[in-house]
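Box 3.1. Reading complex inputs
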Amino acid sequence: MDIWLIFDCLAGGVNILAFNIIGSSSAADILNVQTKRFFDYYMIVVLMISWLRFFSYFLVMSKISKITLTLFMMLKETAYFMMILICYLILMTTVFATLFRDSDTDDAVEYYHSIFTTLRALVDYFLANFPTKEIGAYNTSHSILYIIHVTISNIFLLNFLVAILQTVYDIMIKNGDFYAIEYQYIFITKYMKAMEDDTGYDKLILFPPPLNFLLIPMILVSPWRNVIKGLS
Amino acid sequence: MQSVQIIFLKDFLCATFIVCMFQYINYSYLNLFTERRFKEGSTYEDKLQVVTQNLETYKQFNFIGTIMSISYFLNFLCRIIYNSFSKKKI
């Protein structure tokens, strides 16, 4: 099983399921907000998997594969950093929400009335998007925490993330070709083996979907080697 | 090597065609079942009628999509048959 075949099975499975679920649904299901929302999310997943299958071909193109692999490597290498960032944001969200949710100013009500709005505000601060807020009696403590949070998140953590990405990029510029060749080798050897085969079964490999519908007669007679050889 | 490049080109063009088809089907889903379509009907029955018509239209796309999806499994089946009967395994 190579990566392309895995994507084939995955994309085929989710697509058939999606088309059957939506095709067999009633008009009332579509008008029901919750069912419609489920269909929407499911269609998004289906579309993403279909595009991922297409992206998997980028791994074989020498010019694009290096960039694609660098992108995947960046995502992989930043996974542990993201864990630290998420834990930090949860901690700071709790601190901000606990301290400022009871303030009765417009800004406090708007930004700190729930855990989610507080988290959203802190992510904005992390991305250096922070208008000055009026928190009434809590102004001093809010300013102190705000400075601490922006210093840790925007200066340390964000730059740490940029440093990780830069390091991964530098490594991949040097070694990316090797990883790219690995996928090209898997892809090419698959077809080379099939092309070297003279039994007639090679045609089963050389026709990609949807051209492989032409192979249905061959699939039906596949147990008979002589027939396959003649048919191919 | 030249032949493998041609095979890859064929493979890539087919993958592009399929992803464009799925994108089109998804775009049709987006257009046919957006709430803006249902607003035209004033009563629930009117809305049901609009949705029923749209579902009928969507089922035509569904058929094409299902055929395309089956071809993915056919590819898997071809690989199994090849590995079962051919001298060289992939």
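In summary: Chain A touches chain B through 59 residues (CB under 8 Å).
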